[in-house]
């Protein structure tokens, strides 16, 4: 069974056919037009007819229409014969013949309709535009449909090139369909996807040419990939009709992933004219002092069109040209003509340098070539591990894992442990999972013979446990590592300090974070990125925000080429802005991270810290008033947390959800989420880490559960005494004011507002104004309540939280409007949740809108509404709205 290459487009095709009965399927050679036709034909409930065509008939007038009518069994007399008949007459006769067909639900497939004779194309275009009903549906394929061409205005589905991620998924489907139990290695799928250049047909051809051992990832990959002769039509527009000089340049460039400009320019008189021609076609590109062929099919096809003798002579010439100036390119070409024992090591050493300069694909090709020509792979393990680390920093986890796996086979304990450490870090960055605590990922022999490497592994595991809030595990691991501190190098010392900073700052102690900040100021050389991020995190948690910002700037500058570390720094930057209440800045950072992540995913790159990104996106969607869009993100985050056993992520997710529900006046639902935070944070000693307890107290107060709120306040005070912080003091002050009675309440709110006068607590001050306004409104002081709401809204607008400001003002306006409305005796039978649903129905919202507004499922809304109908003895939505019109006891939402 053939896999369906484009499922979405197949669904769109069926939908268009059901509406219009005529569709044009457009796209270049290899984009999957034929596959879509096959899939449509296979599932068609009725007769499917293909119209044969041949380029030999392209000069015979109306031959295409004649072939179509013959294929479907329609009468052709007088239709396809042009003698004294106009185009309109032929089109009308053809339409009449097609409408007279007795067969119902016939599908007519017309491949390559743009290769018919022009008169047939014009007639067919008119048929497609005029038919909206009838016994048959028609699908044509063409390269493109122009606005002034014969098929203009025909409903069209354009097949664009597939992304790398889509091609990788397709490669696995094709492999499973062809080889059954054989598993396609991720690196083989990625190489094939990049070489296919967006074309699914090319991908299929590439996989056909791969050896089974390559498909399994057992041997060095052949790069550029092998392609069959069928690939040439897919690249014809890029290479056909080029000048002899351009063809020569393409042949030279096809033999290496990078070629210096200067040697070719010195040898070829017409070099620059040829370069302009090839660049204008998109066949080549310049990267600094180098030229390359970016299109995988072009490079593979051109190289394989050369004879073995041509390739050898060109390799020799290019090796000589690059001997003095470009040693890495010389080593590449030499490996094809005169490799020696040192060549593989030279290639892997150059690969690391190329990757760090940004030539990632070139570096990978150098390594695969080194593996192919090496007689002793064991000698390459350490250098290959350097390559794997450089790739991991760039977020290229597939090949990083390939090379770390190779290096882990080393008989040298230090190299094997280093490889394991890299695997742990990469797996955590990608999936936030760690090895089972029941398995010791190092042996006694390794601890004895490679103590520094084992210590680095232990410290890496400790850092990951800190990120997950598993501090007891981290403490045990750092103590194990420090037992071998006599063997530490600078890297291990920095990592140990990083773990200590995270452990102590999560307990509210800022001493180690401040020492780390001083050490960073004094350090002129490279730093461990993990150390820099730990210092920034520790400073942020202990409220040294300016210093934390400065450290993040330093980390981002030092790690500019590293996508992995830069992404983590950006996530920490967004969290810093959130803690500072700078909503607009935080949103801008999150937008940037999200856009970069989506772009990388489409190119097949690995995900980086998906837990942080999902959480930040969820927060951003709530803050921008898009709770409906946040639902999918919440589900992903919750699923990731459950899959990976990450309690910390669940706590933070519930805290974000609870804060949003509180902001839209759904305290009952907010309490459910915030109590979940409390349950999962039993071991957390510092309330400033998660920051949910102030929200929980406020939600309980709004529900009238003041005794429970008082108990939570006492607990917060005790935790604040153990781990003092400015934020905790503000949360305690606001909570005390909300729970106070009489004039004491006003005094305490005044004190809380004065304490929040610092610029970094402007957002907290806005929340205090809002809580004060709510209390004043409850006491009947409407004028003063409006003043406090206005002050809160102004601060929220200044911070960039416009949506929260609008919700604050709108919610209280609704409440004011409700006050003047009459009562309904049976309303007391409704629960708080049912009352909210009833009020939103009265306001005119649909069930799905209500679900998004109060943050529950559609099914929950339906169940609550059914209960409302029963309790209020109404039989319809209209009757409910009529009964509830103007009822003051409904809570404003």
Structural commentary:
- 66% of the residues lie in helices and 4% in strands.
- It is mainly α.
- The strands form two sheets. It has a five-stranded parallel sheet, with helices on both faces. Strands 6-8-7 form a three-stranded antiparallel sheet.
- Residues 812-823 and 887-893 have low confidence and may be disordered.
Furnish the topology, listing elements before pairings.
Layout: H1 7-20, E1 22-26, H2 33-43, E2 47-50, H3 63-72, H4 87-99, E3 106-110, H5 118-130, E4 136-142, E5 156-158, H6 164-179, H7 186-196, H8 200-209, H9 212-215, H10 232-239, H11 244-254, E6 259-260, H12 261-267, H13 271-281, E7 285-287, E8 290-292, H14 296-304, H15 308-322, H16 327-337, H17 343-356, H18 360-373, H19 381-393, H20 397-407, H21 413-431, H22 444-449, H23 451-467, H24 471-482, H25 490-505, H26 511-522, H27 529-541, H28 545-558, H29 563-579, H30 583-602, H31 610-623, H32 627-644, H33 647-663, H34 667-680, H35 687-690, H36 693-702, H37 706-722, H38 726-739, H39 742-755, H40 762-778, H41 782-799, H42 802-818, H43 832-842, H44 847-854, H45 858-872, H46 877-884
Parallel strand pairs: 1-4, 1-5, 2-3, 3-4
Antiparallel strand pairs: 6-8, 7-8
Helix pairs in contact: 3-5, 4-5, 6-7, 6-8, 7-8, 11-14, 15-16, 16-17, 17-18, 17-19, 19-20, 19-21, 20-21, 21-23, 23-24, 23-25, 24-25, 25-26, 25-27, 26-27, 27-28, 27-29, 28-29, 29-30, 30-31, 31-32, 31-33, 32-33, 33-34, 34-36, 36-37, 36-38, 37-38, 38-39, 38-40, 39-40, 40-41, 41-42, 43-45, 43-46, ...
